[in-house]
Amino acid sequence: MLNSIYIGMSGLQGYSQGLRVIANNTANLNTPGFKGSNLQFADMFYSNNQAQAGASGMMQVGYGLNTAGTVLNFQQGELRQTGNSLDLAVDGQGLFTVKDANGNLHYTRAGQFSFNTEGVLVNRVDGSKVMGMDKNGQLQEITLSGASTLAGKATTTVKFNGNLSSTATEQTISAVKVIDSVGGEHLLTVKLTNDGATTPGHWTVQVLDGTTTVGSGSIQFSGGRPDPANSKVNVTYTPTGLAALPLTFDFSTDVTSFASGNLSTLAFASQDGFVPGALTGVSFDGSGTLVMAYSNGQTVKGAQLALGRFDSLDAVVAAGNNQFDATNTLAWHMGVSGANGFGSVRAGMVELSNVDLSQEFSDLVIMQRGYQASSQVISTANEMLQELFQMKSK
After folding, report:
1. N or C: lower Cβ tally within 10 Å for the chain?
2. At a CB cut-off of 8 Å and minimum separation 6, what does 335 contact?
3. Residue 27 is inside which H or E element, if any?
C-alpha cells in the first residue's frame, strides 16, 4: 500500500508538470512567434516477481508515472498584418538570427524589429542585434550608417519617344532636363531640322542651353524606323563653373518617323540622373533585403536578413524572450529567404502564437482527471493503511 501511495504521488507530480506546460502555453496565447510544447509521459520501471506456485510466467508491477521532457511544436502560426514595415514574419521554414550584447546567437520567429539611435536593426524585445548575411555568407549587422543621404548622379543618357513627322520641316523639344555633377538641374532645348530634301530620313539635331549651342549631330530613319547606327547624338555640356558633362541623346527606341502632316508627338521621355535625396523610409522585400527609399524617388538595397533552420527538434531549445537556442550547431543551417529550403520574408506582418486554445482546454481536462484519479488512489491507499493499523491495535 505504501507503494501505491508512491505511485499516486508520481501521478500527482507528473500531472502537475503537465498542468504547468498547459498553463505556459495558454498564458502565451498572444505572444508573437511563440511555439507551444507538449509534455511527454512514460511509465516508470517495473519489478519482476516470480508468480505463485503452479502458475507460469512473471508478475510485473509498475512504479508509477514518469515525465520524459517536453517537445516543441514548430507548426507555423497565423501571419497577421500590422502596418509596420519593420515587423517581419517568415512564411515557411526559418528563424531570424539575433546577437545579444555578449555576442551569443539566438533565433526567433517574432520579427518585431526597429532601428536604434545608432542606426542598427535590433529586436524591440531585448535590443539584440538582427543579423544579415553578406555575399560571402558571413554574418553582419544591418545598419543605416552612411545611408541617411544619397548623393546625386549626373545624367549620361537622355531618351525620347513619340513620332517625328517625316513631312515636318523642324521640331523643337523644350524643357529637356539633365542633372549636373553636383545635383543641379538644367533645362535644355533640342531642335531637329529635316534634311529630307537632300537626304531622305535624315535629321540634324541641335542641343541648346537657352540660346547657346551646346552641340549638334544627326540621326537617320529608314522606313520610318531609326537606323541603329545613326540613332544617337553625343554632345558635351559644360554648365557654368562645373565640370564637362558628356551626354547621349538617344532616339533608338520608342521613336518613329512617319508622315503625319506637321504634327509630331516626339517628346522628352527620361534621363538617368537624379538629384541628392534624404532617406524617407526603410522596408524589407520578399527576399529579406533591406530597401531604402529616398526623397528623390530612388531606392537602394542593403543587407539581406540571415535566417537559420534546424534538421531536428533535438537541436533547438526555447530560451525565453521569444527566442530559441541551438543545442547542436551541426544540425543547423544558415541561409537567406527563398533559397535552400528557407521560407519567404513577409514585411508588415508578424507571426502569432501557434497555441490551439481548444486543444489546450481538452488537455487541461485530461490533466485534471488524471490528477483527481491519482489523488483518489492515494486517499484509498491511506484508508487501507488506517484499517491495517486499526486491526493491529486490536
Report:
1. C
2. 94, 133, 306, 307, 308, 309, 341, 342
3. helix 2-27
State the cell numbers at 32: 508573437
CB-based contacts of 310: which residues, under 8 Å, 6+ apart?
A: 316, 326, 331, 332, 333
Residue 184 belongs to a domain with what CATH number?
2.60.98.20
The three three-digit cell numbers of residue 241, written as one number? 563653373
Divide the 394 residues of the chain into consecutive groups of 10 and give the mean pLDDT of each group: 85 94 96 95 80 61 87 94 95 96 95 95 95 92 94 96 94 96 94 94 96 96 95 95 95 94 92 95 94 95 95 92 93 92 95 96 95 92 85 71
Can you list the pairs that 369-375 forms with residues at least 24 positions away whose Cβ atoms lie under 8 Å? Answer: 370/11, 370/14, 370/15, 370/18, 371/11, 371/12, 371/15, 371/16, 371/19, 373/11, 374/8, 374/9, 374/10, 374/11, 374/12, 374/15, 374/65, 375/8, 375/12
Total-model pTM: 0.79
The number of domains in the chain is 3
Cell triple for residue 235? 554632345
